[in-house]
Write a structure and sequence with these properties.
The protein has 327 residues and is mostly helical. It has 16 helices and two strands. It is globular, with a radius of gyration of 20 Å.
Length: 327
């Protein structure tokens, strides 16, 4: 089996090869933002997960390259549109596509990325390609549903923990789960195996998104790749804010609600004020416990999957890498 690091190298090389072909297509203004979006880095988690899953059952991973590129293209398409909706200026320590080019350009280039992902996906040769296309389509719809819930939450202060967890399942976790499931299906594995890998990846995706929430407030821009405190400035209903609203009371709760409704103040003042309330109610601890819960769920699923210990070890290494763990 290939290591995660080797799979990252292979998908990065594949991305570069495919971008060279896009570079000569016209109109150039449509494809330049696509090239930029796919070139500014990223951990390539989803394509690596797809290739790793395929590699569990086959050494001929080149057969899965088109699907891996498709899922990375689709993921980046969602980021283009998300950044516009969130009015984000920075992505992966670089200007977001709509800041680098234009908002209209980012919308249209995002659209073409969605269609390019399907164009690449259907290059795959597999007895179960129809199932993979169905999975890909279902997941794409779920991601859009998750984004809509995220937008709906912007105007609500009564978002529950359960509602939030369902939103991130749709917006983030299903794509990670589908990456592993697609790899297994492309390798002609039975439904039970593919579904177990999906559940493993989905729980990992929940932990990953919760960790992302945590890093947005308590991380650094160098390691996070985005401006710290962006969720606070945007009044995003993250797990941290929802839990803080639940745990705080009295003056503390009034202060938190006041800051949620305050936009005409220096960014750092608002970020520091809300972060201080988070610290007072112990939000870091609660969030880390929820991250651990989903990580443990993924570990339990991995234990019952009918794979060899060598195969399972690669999935363990992947999950530790995603959550930056050393155990």
């Amino acid at each position: 089996m290939y290591s995660v690091e080797v799979l990252q190298e292979k998908i990065n090389a594949e991305i570069q090869d495919r971008l060279l072909k896009l570079k000569v297509r016209n109109p150039a203004e449509l494809y330049q933002p696509v090239e930029y979006a796919l070139n500014i880095g990223g951990k390539r988690l989803r394509p690596v997960m797809l290739l790793l899953s395929y590699n569990l059952f086959s050494e001929e991973i080149e057969n899965a390259f088109p699907a891996a590129f498709a899922i990375e293209t689709f993921h980046n398409f969602t980021l283009l549109h998300d950044d516009i909706m969130d009015k984000a200026d920075v992505r992966r320590n670089s200007p977001t596509v709509h800041r680098k080019f234009s908002e209209n350009g980012a919308i249209l280039s995002g659209d073409v990325m969605a269609f390019l992902s399907y164009q690449n996906l259907i290059e795959c040769k597999s007895e179960r390609l129809k199932d993979v296309i169905g999975l890909f389509t279902k997941t794409a719809i779920e991601v859009c549903e998750g984004q809509q819930y995220d937008m709906d939450f912007e105007n609500r202060l009564d978002v529950t923990e359960a509602e939030y967890l369902e939103m991130i399942r749709l917006k983030t976790a299903v794509l990670l789960g589908s990456s592993l499931k697609a790899g297994a299906l492309l390798a002609n594995q039975p439904d039970e195996m593919a579904e177990q890998l999906y559940q493993f990846g989905s729980n990992l995706g929940m932990a990953f998104q919760l960790q992302d929430d945590l890093l947005d407030t308590f991380g650094t821009q160098e390691t996070f790749g985005k401006k710290i405190g962006g969720d606070i400035l945007a009044n995003k209903k993250t797990y941290l804010l929802i839990k803080a609203l639940e745990l705080s009371s009295g003056v503390q709760l009034s202060e938190l609600k006041k800051w949620i409704g305050t936009d005409n103040v220096q960014d750092e003042i608002k970020i520091n004020a809300v972060t201080n309330i988070y610290r007072q109610v112990g939000i870091e601890k609660f969030t880390e416990e929820k991250i651990d819960f989903y990580f443990e769920q993924s570990t339990k699923i991995l234990q019952i999957i009918s794979l060899s210990e060598i195969q399972k070890q690669q999935l363990k290494l992947l999950s530790n890498k995603i959550l930056k763990r050393d155990h």
